[in-house]
Amino acid sequence: MAAGGRHPRPRRRLRRWPTGVGLVPIRPVQGAHALTEDITTSRCRSAVRRLMDSRDIPAFNVVLHYGSPNIGGPWAQEATG
Q1: Which of 26, 47, 59, 74 has the smallest number of Cβ neighbours within 10 A?
Q2: CA separation for the pair 44, 22 (Å, rounded)
Q3: How confident is the model at residue 7 (pLDDT cuts 50, 70, 90)?
Q4: Are the beta carbons of 15 and 57 closer than 8 angstroms?
Q5: Terminal CA-to-CA distance of the chain, rounded, Å?
Q6: What single-letter DSSP state applies at residue 12?
Q7: H helices within the chain, ranges in order?
Q8: Where are the domains of the chain?
Q9: Is 72 helix (H, G, I), strand (E, B) or coil?
């Protein structure tokens, strides 16, 4: 038994499947999958769900959001190429 009288949880091996979603295509990243979709649409949600189902991924461990050019300012000023 661990400190505090609690049983430690068994460790599960996590499968890594980095996935990105964006309006503009990006250069390929080895070991990752990129979707060119508008994340606010049901089409995007369906594409993500199909990807998860095809890899037998029940959930993502981390969701990282870098911000939206539509919120921060004009896309042409914020986009990098």
Answers
A1: 59
A2: 10
A3: low
A4: yes
A5: 54
A6: P
A7: 42-54, 69-72, 75-78
A8: 19-72
A9: helix
